[in-house]
Amino acid sequence: xxxxxxxxxxxxxxxxxLTEALNTFLAEDLISPENLPPAPRxxxxxxxxxxxxxxxxxxxxxxxxxxxxxxxxxxxxxxxxNPGQTVRIATxxxxxxxxDAVVMLEHAEENQNLVEIKRPAAPHQHTLLPGExxxxxxxxxxxxxxxxxxxxxxxxxxxxxxxxxxxxPKVGIISTGDELVPPEEKPPLGKIRDINSYSxxxxxxxxxxxxxxxxxxxxxxxxxxxxxxKALAENQVVLISxxxxxxxxxxTLEIIKNLPESELLCHGLAVRPGxxxxxxxxxxxxxxxxxxxVASALLIFYVLVRPFLLYLQGAxxxxxxLKRIWAKASRNIPSVAGREDFVRVKITSSPEGPIAxxxxxxxxxxxxxxxxxxxxxxxxxxxxxxxxxxxxxxxLP
Length: 397
Prior knowledge:
- The chain contains six helices and 28 strands.
- It is of the alpha/beta class.
- Strand 20 and strand 21 form a beta hairpin.
- It is elongated and about 90 Å long.
């Protein structure tokens, strides 16, 4: 299914301040404009030395060096070490010319203008070399890299204050069904509060999209058509929950087929839950028909819609997917060959590793999603997972 994503154009590239770029994806490769660090730096408090001057030093036969100064933090080293000399240096300080190692404070003893070195230092010990992190002209990050706090730190260290990213997709959310009422209303008998709009809204935010609710649409062809046309005009992606299965009052498929320049890419997935899922392309916009059952709708969002939203933002490969781990099944979990099963699970720890405990609740119960840590995936060629067997787990964000 993911190969169909390439039928859609990604969001436009814009430059975003680094302070606002967390969890976005780079739209272009970034090349290092300089060495990081730019010069040798100390990684320990101690004494900058010429390593060969310390060779042979022992606890009971120390090497004595002349202390000729101190390099304070934020200062450029102005002196150059001659043979037999050393200077004090703090972690992060830049080594003076000719120094190529640092002796830790614990391995030295200072006495007036002399320092006894009690352990030899190897060349480059307790130092960072120029360009050891990133060298000038080297690839820093490829396009598609998610900007995490650590990535932001790298970029700041190299002087990038703005980064090229893709625009976040706007997502319109429609819930369908005569049985739905807004959350603020007390539902009479025969009605139920709208859950899907709000779970999908939050899930869209987590995936980097910009969601808009288009309210509850009754099981009426004209009303749904009007809502879909409005949402498509204002968004890059539209999610319709309910109305995707084959039934007398399920109009989603019919409305999609009647939209100008529409192309049905998928109607029905070999997965459970979520079989009646729809994906259509309308010009360069995507329309998803999601199941009406609340747990099924949210599961399909994580399995299919979330990767699509990340793709539009520039994610590639593994970056499209939820984080995955392997865990042992706590019991036998049956399945049917020919479809992928996604079973909601709670993860617990054990001396043998993570344990996946299945949550066997009906797909109409949202509590199963609230309790779950993730989904256990049963491949389509398997007929189930045996107790104690390792299984792939998609962790919920």
